[in-house]
Automatic annotation (TrEMBL):
It comes from the Bacteria. SMART domains: AAA. This is ATP-binding cassette domain-containing protein. GO terms for biological process: L-amino acid transport. It comes from Algicella marina. Residues 6-236 form the ABC transporter domain.
Amino acid sequence: MSDPFLIGEAMTGGYGAADILHDCTLSVEKGEIAVIVGPNGAGKSTAMKAVFGMLPLRKGEVRLGGKAITSLSPQERVRAGMGFVPQTANVFTSMTVRENLEMGAFIRQDDFSDTMDLVFDLFPILKEKATQPAGELSGGQRQQVAVGRALMTKPSVLMLDEPTAGVSPIVMDELFDKILEVAATGIAILMVEQNAKQALNIADKGFVLVQGRNRFTNTGEALLADPEVRRSFLGG
Ligand SMILES: Nc1ncnc2c1ncn2[C@@H]1O[C@H](COP(=O)(O)OP(=O)(O)OP(=O)(O)O)[C@@H](O)[C@H]1O
Ligand SMILES: [Mg+2]
């Protein structure tokens, strides 16, 4: 079997002496959406940080396009094609929307105006609000800025940690539609979601994490149909 496009394999590690992740494996293919769900404190954000190189691994490996990238820094991973939207502090609130997007293009030496146009096509409201400080935007609009910023490097993998946190159900649906659009362009999407049911609905694959371990891994559809998953993690 060939390697997944992105895989964090058997990741073990934490912030200090105690491990948070235990043999945790996550993966996603190009053009697919993989969703990570699980209770608060399960290690979802920690696992994302590990894949992005923000957490030293004691064991395990991260591979992108079949190449080990475990020793690369986050900035080197961005150059290798990874985009990451962290759970918190993911926009510069005092900078304008346009400046936020420009910051996203920090590694690019070429003309990135085409990419900014693509981001504005995807999120038209950002074009309207381009000269406004991002801090003045609504929660859902700010999440669009954060996703747009990550797209500015033209990543092959987009990692999103709770992109719909704190937004209304309608805005959540809109964001999920946009994420589906991004995946349809061939980008691999690895995202953490607290709206587990809705997220698994659009997911090709889902990972249920508990206490830093893989508890269930299957297609989104199969997880949604699994009585135990439903009872324990999806509120019945
Ligand atoms: N910077 C840190 N230093 C030390 N421990 C941390 C740090 N960040 C998280 N932890 C601990 O690691 C464990 C996993 O936290 P993590 O944030 O990865 O969980 P999560 O699944 O993302 O939770 P949530 O659903 O609340 O976002 C928790 O016990 C948490 O207290
Ligand atoms: Mg988290």
